[in-house]
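A quick aside before the break. I want you to see a complete sequence-to-structure record at least once, exactly as it would be stored in a machine-readable document. Don't worry about memorizing anything.
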Amino acid sequence: MTMIKVFLSVKNRLKKFCLYQLSLRKWMILIRHPLEYQKRKRMAKCFSKTSFSESLEQIKEKGYVTASSLVDTELRDKLDAVYLEKAKELSYYINTVDIGRSKTYMREMLVGEDFYSDSVFVKFALQNSIIEIVSSYFGQIPYLARIELVLTVGQCHQQWSHSQLWHKDYNDKKMIKFFIYLTDVETDEDGPFTFFPRNISEKLNLPLFPVHKSDSIFVKKQIMHQFKKMKGPRLTTFFIDTYHCYHMGSRLPHGKYRVAFVATYTTFASHLAYDNKIKISNSASSLERLILETIT
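That is the input. The structure line, written in tokens, reads:
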């Protein structure tokens, strides 16, 4: 029994040390830019009496909320139209593997001009209702860390790897991903985003390593009946706190694919450095610049 206690103590200390190492960059940025932090907190207070209080409370409690009713439908339809134009070359993306990418089951469909601040993809991520919810949740104006138009393709084998295994994102303690499906995701074979809600994930007390965890770990916990799959027709939209929720990406059978636009928001002083690649135009507002500019 003593040896078990020693082992658990060492394991917990190692976990705390690793999380401390992740926090070093955050503290360095905060020390370098103390006024930036205060400015973002002050501006976020404008959103403290949000009209989306129910959605905000659900994110705080369960780590996710559907958002299809919150988005600007005109902007959504413009994004969809641009995607449908790209989809005419879908076979090219499906058959082209990014050699430099470890996740061979994923393809990035955004190209150079999509990363301009006036592109529909960036505008969709910057719409007022979305920024209001994320700012209220963070308690500060967020940084748009990444935008992706991700095509996930089914594999011949069923050996899941990387983000197809259960994990949390440790890029920052305050982190939200905003999804919109651009293909129907109505069955398990369509590759729904799958996760354990925050209130369940926080009770698990799992070790930090391995970061990507197999199903067997959760089977032993006897909680596999409690995970949730985000299913819906194309244009289904939702938020997910990927720092607090154990989750996994698409598990698709061979011959199937899924496309989703994903915007990732962190604080400006995240644990891991991001470069969102977004080129900010002269017409961008001061708030948009605050959200888009990378601070080092």
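Two observations worth writing down. The CA atoms of residues 15 and 207 lie 7 Å apart. The chain has a mean pLDDT of 89. We'll return to this after the break.
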